[in-house]
Amino acid sequence: MVDDFEGIAAVDRERIAPFLVRRALTAGSLVYEDGATQVFSSDGMTTYVEDGRVSAGEWTVDETGRFASFWPPHYTAEYDLRWLVEDGRIVGLRFLGRDSVPFVGRYRTGE
């Protein structure tokens, strides 16, 4: 659980406001449902770890709040981000892509 969201009244599955997307992504490392983890750095870099394999990529957010990630050499994905809220607290993010199955990342506890 991260405490970087004081004062934000988030609703589960609500689209994250464009001005909050960077804050949401960099608030802490995420753990996905399959056990993979990901960290988004404020410099636009990201590290994804799945079964011990580390992948480095880049991320951006446009003025509409749409999140995009680039994984060399050619893969790019775009997502709308939505809050994951439980018991009134932000606990993670929902990634909704145009051409992919939605997935959920939970902030790693203890950070």
UniProtKB/TrEMBL annotation:
It comes from the Bacteria. This is Nuclear transport factor 2 family protein. It comes from Nocardioides astragali.
